Amino acid sequence: NGDWNAFAKSIDGIMAKFPGIWMQAPGAKILLAQVKARAAQPKLPPLQGKDLNEEDQKLALELAECNDAHCDFLHSRFGFMNWLLAPSENSDRGGDDVGLKIINRGVKSFPLLIAMLNDQTLMRGDKSNFSGFGNQFNGILSRRNEMTPELVYDLMRRPLCRGDFAAALLKRVVPGAENESAEAEKESLPAQAEEWYATCKACKTQVELAKLYLSESDASHKRQALEFLVKNGSDKESALLEETLLNGEISDPSLLRLATEYAAKQGPKAKAFADKYIKKLEESPQLEDDDKKLVEASVSNLRLAVNSETVKDIVAALVSGKRD
């Protein structure tokens, strides 16, 4: 409820009641210090960082005061999607939620998020409810002898801080960041985010961003970028899409689906691509029975997608006996 003094007293009470036996006590001591620091600052100072503007500062303050319901938006609405490529129907662009305001700014929010990465300002949200974190502490009890107080604090159930929020958003959009361990992330993520921001800040549209992600080696981001371009790209991206699809793993179900979606969107214009893709499918190595059925269905769908025949042509062919 935002009463940080009362929260500090409750932590003090638990630590006094269970001295020496509460496994999360080392982390709770750090939490207590953070809660007392939050209580001592009813008016938060400006966020420190590079290239921050007035809107960034306003959003940082809003974030510090947002409630638990607002904190839970990321995982429930986006899962592990790259939010820079999120379609408008998924992100509810234009909403009043402070998290969505930050997301809706796209790449412009990078300076704000980078500045908040090491910010320990507590928010009015439960970290275990945010972004699929869950209660991570229970899963590592077997490592209790090697846990530092800082690691206990990071993994215990506690209020979210602005640094947690920023890290969760940046890990979804910075190539390679999601593969880092929790310990390595704290050291590497700021530099990774700075580097990616320098690379992508010139992009003016989501299509430009998607093309940039498509050139990266991160498989997850490449897949999301390819899906975005199939759905939202124009004829300008056709050559790039066709080359990417033709060079992909031919029996990958998601690529087969995207190839069919692309052909259906392009229609007869994609006939040359469909012919090449079908040839590659038919020349693919021995497949399992389930894969064979998928390939056969894909071949049929691709041919149908690029067929230039009209209903009148099909009827005439049937009447003449040229078609079964």
For the secondary structure, the number of strands is 2
Which spans have pLDDT < 50 for at least 5 consecutive residues? Answer: 89-94
Report the average pLDDT across residues.
Answer: 83
Order of helices and strands: HHHHHHHHEHEHHHHHHHHH
Estimate the strand proportion: under 5%
Q: What share of the residues lie within helices? A: 55-70%
Give the radius of gyration. 26 Å
Describe the structure.
The protein is mainly α and about 325 residues long. It has helices spanning about 5-15, 25-40, 55-65, 70, 75-80, 90, 100-105, 110-115, 150-155, 160-170, 180-200, 205-215, 220-230, 240-245, 255-265, 270-280, 290-305, 310-320, and strands at about 120-125, 160. It has a two-stranded antiparallel ribbon with strand order 1-2. The longest helix is centred in the middle third of the chain and has 19 residues, at about 180-200. It is elongated, with a radius of gyration of 26 Å.
Outline of the structure:
It is built from 18 helices and two strands.
What keyword list fits this structure?
324 residues, two-stranded antiparallel sheet, 2% strand, single chain, 2 strands, mainly alpha, elongated
In terms of topology, how is this protein built?
Blueprint: H1 4-17, H2 25-39, H3 54-65, H4 68-71, H5 73-78, H6 88-91, H7 98-104, H8 110-116, E1 122-126, H9 149-155, E2 159-161, H10 162-171, H11 182-200, H12 206-214, H13 219-232, H14 238-246, H15 253-266, H16 271-282, H17 289-305, H18 311-320
Antiparallel strand pairs: 1-2
Helix pairs in contact: 1-2, 2-9, 8-10, 12-13, 13-15, 15-17, 16-17
